[in-house]
Amino acid sequence: MLKTILKNMCLKRTKLARFSSQNTNNINNVSENSAFQTQCKPVDLSFETKKMYAAFPSICEEIVDEQLIYHQAYPELRERYFNLLEYTVNIDQPRNIGKGIFFVHSYRMLEKPSILTDDNLKKACVLGWCQRMVDVSVIIDDDVFDVSDWRYNKPTWHSLKCVGQNKAILDAAFVESSVWYLLIKQFKSHKYFPDILKQVLMSYAVTQTSQCLELTKYDVKDLDKYTYSVRGYGFAAPLLRTALYLANIEDKDAHEFSEKITNDMSHFIKCEVRFF
């Protein structure tokens, strides 16, 4: 089961991942004798994608209500933070929220069918959006540091005239704190809440540390040091282990296997992003 999930994790980075039931995939439309014939079957993520997008509006409401509990006299703030979440988190290109979608997919594969109720799937979507918001909080800051003007084929958040760099940095903190609000409110009664919290926090903390290392200039002779640093990129391991805990799977071997193999996968993914 874990091997299948990990294989699908790789497929979601290619055209073999279908985020919509209307997607057509031509990658296998080649001759059976062709050297380019792939043996991998497409993974259908249309169900998870639909569930994720359907859950977002109520999650937004919950976030803004919690964050502005002492600022209810300022409706302009409410509108502003809704715009922030819609602009930076809720990207209409499923591949860009693939981390959250894959999390829901992992949970569906790990959970007992009898437990896959609408309520539990909604909670999985909440965790999926938490994974997405962890990334967004880092991305907003990263775009400021890199003075980037474009992200997802549109202007970066800080480059908008109504935002600017100072507000963008504060907004990144707003997105990050939204993750902890959601986790506490939605999962505090879960048996493995401390473990779920730790995995999400690890994803954020390790990514932030990697960002710090990336701001350092290395000589060619220090390539090995840089290669080691990208191994810490918190993409795969916290994601899969969080899904295991959400499905109430504490099996030590399963967690150790996930940690070991996803560490190398995250190394490959990071190198792929940087060098190709």
Head-to-tail CA distance between termini: 30 Å
Helix/strand order, N-terminal first:
HEEHHHHEEHHHHH
Query: Helical percent range?
Result: 55-70%
What is the average of the pLDDT values? 82
What's the overall geometry? globular
Q: Let me know the CATH homologous superfamily.
A: Farnesyl Diphosphate Synthase
Structure, described:
Pfam families: polyprenyl_synt. This protein has helices at residues 2-11, 46-67, 75-88, 98-110, 118-146, 164-187, 193-214, 223-230, 236-246, 252-275, and strands at 17-18, 43-44, 150-151, 154-155. The protein is mainly α and 276 residues long. The chain has a single domain (44-216, 226-275), classed as Farnesyl Diphosphate Synthase, CATH 1.10.600. Strands 1-2 form a two-stranded parallel ribbon. Strands 3-4 form a two-stranded antiparallel sheet. The longest helix is centred in the middle third of the chain and has 29 residues, at 118-146.
Describe the structure in brief.
With 276 residues, the chain is mostly helical. The chain contains 10 helices and 4 strands. A two-stranded parallel ribbon has the order 1-2. A two-stranded antiparallel ribbon has the order 3-4.
